[in-house]
Structures are given as structure tokens and as C-alpha cells.
Amino acid sequence: MSHGFALGEVPPARQAALLDRITEAGISLATVAPVRTAPLPWTELSAREVPVGLGTDGIRDLWSPYGDGDVLQIALGFARLHGLRTDEDLVAAVELATRRAGSFVGRGRHDLAPGCRADVVLVAAENVPDALMRVPVRSLVIAGGRVVVRDGELLV
Fold first, then answer.
1. Exposed / middle / buried, residue 101 (Cβ in 10 Å: 0-12, 13-18, 19+)
2. What is the pLDDT of residue 138?
3. What confidence tens digit (pLDDT) does each residue in 84-108 have?
């Protein structure tokens, strides 16, 4: 299911019934968490083990001029939309845009181990919530084992 914005707009009883049907049907949900939409019932989806991921399908397009393809920005928008405040919830938002979103694009395994794809983003941050809130310059970005950004400068 793409986006699923309306899930946050239906009354609780109807929402619970829809979430049950989504779970039974084995549907997964990917969203961009746009501003001015109702928050998704992401904790309820997670409790039902419905796969949820964040991504971006609009990079400065006619639908929205705000996209730039940066998943940390998407995670930050999700955190703001949902009023997330605790470190645990902020980490969960980043995971929705990274580890958990990987399964939606055929990259289910996100380990740093021999044989893995080697997609890595390095930032100067104290921890995951710090990286999310400050959105620091990407010091080094490695995609598929190739350095594509160094000190914030695109090399490709």
C-alpha cells in the first residue's frame, strides 16, 4: 500500500477493522509522511507486525517542491508529524526510513558484514537521535561499495 494517508483520518473502530484486514491480507505500507496529513497509526501497525517503511517518491516535483531524496529528512518529517519526542521513538523513525524500509526495495538485510551491499552514510553525531535532529552534513556516503559523497560533496 502506498502512503495510506487516510488510515489516520478514520474513526478508531473503523481504523482497527481496516488494520486487521491489512494484517490478514499481508499488506505492507510505504509512506513519505507528508506534512498536513493525519498521523498514521504506525504503532498499531507495528504491533500487528505490518511492515511499514518510509521513503521518498517526490524529489522537487509537481506534487511537492520539498523532496530532496534524503531519508533522514523524511524520518525527521515523520517524527514531527507524529510528535515523537523520546530517543526510542526517534530511533524508530530512523529505522522506518533505513533498516525497515530496505525490504520494500529488495534490500532486506542491512548488516555491516562481509557480503553485504555496503551502503553506509557517516555523519558527525553523538547517536541516532542526534543525527536525526541536527541533520548534519553527510561526511561520507558509500553506495554499493563506492564512495559517492565526501564531506558533503557529491562525487558521482
1. buried
2. 87
3. 999 999 999 999 988 877 766 666 6
Grid cell in block for residue 9:
483520518
Rg (CA), the chain: 16
Q: State pTM to two decimals.
A: 0.83
If you search the block for the grid coordinates 498514521, which residue do you land on? 40
pLDDT digits (tens, 9 = 90+) for 26-50: 988 888 777 778 888 988 998 998 8
Structural domain spans, the chain? 1-110, 111-156
In this prediction, residues 62-76 reach a mean pLDDT of 79
DSSP-derived secondary structure for the chain? -B--GGGGTS-HHHHHHHHHHHHHHT--EEE---TTSPPP-HHHHHHTT--EEE----SS-SS-TT--S-HHHHHHHHHHHTT--SHHHHHHHHHHHTTTGGGGGT-----SSTTS---EEEE--SSHHHHHHH---EEEEEETTEEEEETTEE--
Give the Cα separation of 24 and 32 in Å (integer): 24
